[in-house]
Structure formats: structure tokens, C-alpha cells
Design the sequence.
């Protein structure tokens, strides 16, 4: 049976602005529409087990958050908990309990959850995955640094939470052949930033996601949940490609 899974990508649920932040009232409306659509919302653990067993539903949703900002605990989780949704949060472990401090951060820097908060949320049903130790661009690391970023972050999460950490998300969605090989050696799944739904032909180590900033127009989100969103995704991918081509000459400046 063919299947399609919308893996939702969020970062911050706040009013700080920018493409990595979604206003709390918009996020609440997105979750309400998701609950009303009655599309199965799976944990990434359950999704992976069902994929291996060949038992995924025709349509499903997985909710993911990158970075582990404090506003996840304060704003996002109470909304999802009310609906019974269990997301996964990818943590850059060196910044747990500290402000974000990596390249491309917002102003002012946003606070990340501490381990006590993360442990409490894990007990309430939230999953946690690895986002490396330092939120580094994997393609800029030496082989030794790459292995350290993957292995140490995984170990730290497992030691703090007392459970396996099989899931990964590369910072900035950047990874090449060498990086994917290392990820495969440490984890069971990895999500990226390719804009699409996941389907049977997708590698479980390069799963596409839906950047939810593109669905702040709730009519587009409603259409997607109703199965009418394919044309919109094609347009968004085309616009992203054009923007990337226009920015490429300046990338090294």
C-alpha cells in the first residue's frame, strides 16, 4: 500500500520574528486544524516501527522540533498535550540550558530547555533526538569531528534520559555522502529540510519535512490536510530553488 507522511518541522513558537519562529496563536490554530482533520499523528518511534513492518497508514503526520527552545515547554507542548500529540525534539546538547549560540542565531538569542525540563517532558511522552553537540554544519567538519558530534550528542541524551536515542536531524539540513555514512552508523532515522511529504521511495536517513512557516496561512494548511496541497508544495519548492540560485553568488561573502 502506498503511503504519505507529513513530517512537520518547527523551531520556535514565539513572536521573535523570522522564518524559524511561528506565533503562538498560529501554532495553536495549526494544531486545532490537525486534530479536526483526524489524520493519524504518530510518534517517530511508532512511524519507524510501522514502516519497517509495512503497516503505515495511507496518510499520517509526525511532528518535529529542532533546537529545543524553552518556548517548546512553555507554549508548544501544552497545546500538543491537550490533543494527545507526541512530538520529537532534536537537541544540540552543548546548548542545553543555555542561550542559542550557533551561526545564524536570532537577536536576542533564545533560551534552550535545561535537562530537568527535558527529563520531565520525556516522562510526559515527548521524544528527544540528536541535533549534534554544537549545532555545527556537518559538511565543514573533519572526519574525527564529525564522529564526535554524532556520538557524543547521542551518548549525552541517552545518559540523561536513560533510553535509546535513535533519531537525528543535521543542523541546517546539510549533509553529504560522508556525513550520511556516519549518520547511518549511529542512528536509525534522520530528517532533513527537503520540502515534501515522505513516501515509500524516501531514504529513512534523508526524510523530507514540511517547514511549517509555509503554512502560517491557515487556508493552505487546511487544504494540505484535506489532501489538496500538492500544487502548493510544488510552487513553494520552485520559489525556494529560485531563491537559492539568487543567493548562491553571495554565499562565500
Sequence:
Amino acid at each position: 500500500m502506498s503511503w504519505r507522511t507529513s513530517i512537520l518541522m518547527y523551531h520556535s513558537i514565539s513572536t521573535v520574528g523570522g522564518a524559524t519562529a511561528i506565533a503562538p496563536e498560529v501554532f495553536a490554530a495549526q494544531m486545532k486544524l490537525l486534530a479536526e482533520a483526524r489524520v493519524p499523528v504518530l510518534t517517530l518511534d511508532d512511524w519507524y516501527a510501522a514502516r519497517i513492518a509495512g503497516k503505515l497508514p495511507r496518510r499520517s503526520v509526525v511532528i518535529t522540533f529542532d533546537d529545543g527552545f524553552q518556548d517548546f515547554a512553555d507554549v508548544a507542548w501544552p497545546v500538543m498535550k491537550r490533543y494527545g500529540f507526541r512530538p520529537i525534539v532534536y537537541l544540540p546538547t552543548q546548548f542545553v540550558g543555555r542561550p542559542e549560540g550557533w551561526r545564524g542565531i536570532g537577536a536576542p538569542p533564545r533560551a534552550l530547555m535545561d535537562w530537568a525540563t527535558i527529563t520531565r517532558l520525556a516522562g510526559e511522552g515527548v521524544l528527544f533526538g540528536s541535533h549534534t553537540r554544537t549545532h555545527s554544519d556537518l559538511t565543514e567538519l573533519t572526519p574525527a569531528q564529525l564522529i564526535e558530534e554524532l556520538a557524543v550528542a547521542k551518548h549525552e541524551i541517552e545518559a540523561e534520559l536513560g533510553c535509546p536515542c535513535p533519531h537525528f536531524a543535521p543542523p541546517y539540513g546539510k549533509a553529504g555522502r560522508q556525513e550520511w555514512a556516519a549518520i547511518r552508523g549511529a542512528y536509525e532515522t534522520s530528517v532533513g529540510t527537503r520540502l515534501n511529504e515522505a513516501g515509500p521511495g524516501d531514504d529513512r536517513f534523508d526524510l523530507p519535512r514540511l517547514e511549517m512557516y509555509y503554512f502560517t496561512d491557515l487556508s493552505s494548511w487546511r487544504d494540505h490536510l484535506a489532501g489538496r496541497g500538492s500544487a502548493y508544495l510544488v510552487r513553494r519548492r520552485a520559489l525556494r530553488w529560485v531563491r537559492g540560485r539568487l543567493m548562491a553568488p553571495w554565499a562565500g561573502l
User: Anything to note?
Assistant: The helical segments are 24-37, 44-53, 70-83, 115-124, 143-161, 177-186, 218-225, 230-247. Residues 2 and 118 are 36 Å apart (CA to CA). The beta strands are 4-10, 12-13, 21-22, 59-66, 88-91, 127-130, 167-168, 189-195, 207-211. Residues 248-253 have pLDDT under 50 and may be disordered.
